[in-house]
Amino acid sequence: MIEAILNELEALKHKFDEQIVAVNSANAVEALRIQYLARKGEFPQYFKKLGEVPAEVRPQLGQKLNELRDYLEAALNAKKELFGQVTRGPKVDLTLSGIPRRLGTRHPLLKTLDEIKSIFIAMGFSVESGPLAENDYYNFEALNIPRNHPSRDMQDTLYLSDPMREEGETYLLRTHTSPVQVRTMLKQKPPIRIIAPGRVFRKDNLDATHSPVFHQIEGLYVDEGVTMGDLKGVLLAYARKLLGRDIKVRFRPSYFPFTEPSAELDVWFPAKNRWMELLGCGMVNPAVFDMLGIDSEKYTGFAFGMGIERVAMTKYAIDDIRYFYDNDVRFLQQF
Ligand code: DAH
Question: Which one of 58, 93, 121, 231 has the largest count of C-beta atoms within 10 Å of its C-beta?
Answer without folding.
Answer: 231
